[in-house]
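In response to the reviewer comment on reproducibility (Comment 2.3), we provide here a single inverse folding case reported in full, input and output, so that an independent group could reproduce the run without further information from us. The structure tokens appear first.
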């Protein structure tokens, strides 16, 4: 008997896993108390993230099913070998982005949202730029700073959600 967990069905199972996690996440977000003090409460963003995650999981399942139907095992094995080669080049930057995210979140109260957010955005720009493209550090710095200030302004003055100011006076 063939196993249902094989390379041809891997994409489908990833989608199922993401979808199940999204459903659990959405159910857990229902237990967040609604806030009446601000226009957008603490429950809003987790629900948005949960629905986006569920959508991504469903799209992954659809993509996996279409790939399963259109490819033979031999074609799939050849494509998988190609993908594994490319994946080796992209795994390290993705892991580095998660490390940078953890460090920036850990330092956010001390440094503030603007500094840690700009550092996070800059690090992501550098690490996620493909190796075959030229890295434009000046543009990355400008983009990171402008984005951090814009998000800070949006949260503070539009959504009325305070973010850590850290060492900056505002």
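Designed residues, in position order:
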């Amino acid at each position: 008997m063939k196993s249902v967990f094989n390379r041809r069905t891997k994409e489908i199972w990833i989608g199922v896993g993401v979808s199940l996690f999204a459903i659990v996440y959405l159910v857990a977000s229902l237990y967040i108390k609604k806030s009446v003090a601000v226009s957008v409460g603490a429950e809003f963003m987790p629900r948005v993230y949960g629905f986006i995650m569920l959508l991504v999981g469903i799209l992954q399942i659809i993509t996996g099913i279409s790939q399963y139907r259109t490819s033979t095992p031999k074609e799939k094995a050849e494509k998988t070998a190609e993908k594994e080669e490319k994946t080796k080049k992209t795994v390290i930057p993705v892991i580095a982005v998660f490390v940078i995210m953890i460090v920036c979140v850990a330092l956010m109260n001390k440094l503030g949202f603007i500094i840690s957010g700009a550092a996070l955005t800059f690090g992501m720009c550098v690490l996620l730029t493909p190796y075959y493209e030229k890295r434009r550090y000046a543009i990355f710095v400008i983009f990171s700073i402008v984005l951090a200030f814009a998000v800070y302004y949006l949260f503070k003055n539009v959504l009325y959600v305070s973010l850590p100011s850290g060492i900056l006076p505002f």
